[in-house]
Amino acid sequence: MRTRAIVVAAGLALATALAGCTSDGTISMFSSSYGSKKDSGYQLPSIPISKVPRKYHRQTVRYDTKEKPGTIIVDTNEKFLYLVMPEGKAMRYGIGVGREGFEWKGTARVAMKREWPTWTPPSEMIGRQPELAKWRGGMPPGLMNPLGARALYLFNKNGDTGYRLHGTPEWNSIGQAMSSGCIRLINQDIIDLYERAENGAKVIVL
Length: 206
Fold this sequence. Notes:
- With 206 residues, the protein is an alpha+beta fold.
- The chain has helices at residues 2-19, 123-128, 187-196; strands spanning 26-29, 37-39, 42-44, 59-62, 72-75, 80-85, 89-94, 97-98, 106-115, 150-156, 159-168, 177-179, 183-186, 202-205.
- One of its GO terms (cellular component) is extracellular region.
């Protein structure tokens, strides 16, 4: 009887130890964080997160890297963005990336952060999509603005790269390659990243 009690106790201890980290490295999930919320006067709609593959839900994961905490690492192949945290962890977000011909990689830094930014399509984009010419002077912030609720502006040694980490109202584009090169996140996720990331943060796009 004593032996059985020891075995049961050991099993419970092991289960408790494993409860915080699954076999895929997930420590905690934030699938309940995609509800409707009011933000700076805008009412963000809820996201039907059950329709988004689970791997793209915001989650804390085990992540092995030599980069210091606060670094942002974008894995365009896997469609993940990692914000490096202490003790071998990272906050992982699902992302949408540039479609074929618009991919990019390299190292940059977060030079500016903006809440509910104005979107100004570059002249090259207007050339491809003339209907965007009406926004040549800038599209006002709002729920349908392509930059979403937040934008982090990426610069390198040559100045503005033209690329952004930004929100999007198109939640179903997460996990897809369909942007013009920028990295897009669900609005609720870009708000979370915006609060965690610092100006000057290193950004590595793989």
